[in-house]
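From the shared-data thread, chain only:
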Amino acid sequence: MAFSGLAFAIFYAGLGIPVARLADRGNRRNIIAISLAIWSGMTALCGLAQSLPQLLLARIGVGIGEAGSSPPSHSIIADLYPSEKRAGAMGIYAMGIVLGSGFGTMIGGWLAHLYGWRIAIVAVGIPGILLAIFVRLFVVEPRRGLSETSPVSDEARPSLAAGAIPRRAISSSGSRSPRSSAMRSPHGLRVITSAPSAPRSRRSR
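Structure, as tokens:
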């Protein structure tokens, strides 16, 4: 079980920057919808796993899906909110990680106690697939730079080689880059991996 968590962490952290580069060029709404569908579907498959290799593959799928969430989400938030409101919007988004983990643990533990851990995992995964469909159909992809009062030239953007991203990633202009959010996203992994496991149900199978 610990090995499946390590596999999740490796793929989640390792794919953050490649997905962020894709978000720099592609449709961010579609990336979020696809990622949400992948990690929710793979979460449900974790409840159907019959062996360690099956669970390992499902956990890797969860990591791949979750890696595509934060970079395009941060980029969209930066386009929708001006610099004076951006920190608050980012804070509300980040709060969803903690609230989702908390409610998931409580609801999952309750379902596991009543119906077994497999049903609990499937039950928390299926709603995400429906949410992915909703995102794809109703969320609008904003124009890039929508909230910027003046355009930012390519020369003004720091490169990785310059070593400036850790210093400027929290600035109003730097936060627009999905790659900067990809570098910060592994920190949220500690919240997910350190969450307590639901107690084993008497009816677990």
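The radius of gyration is 18 Å.
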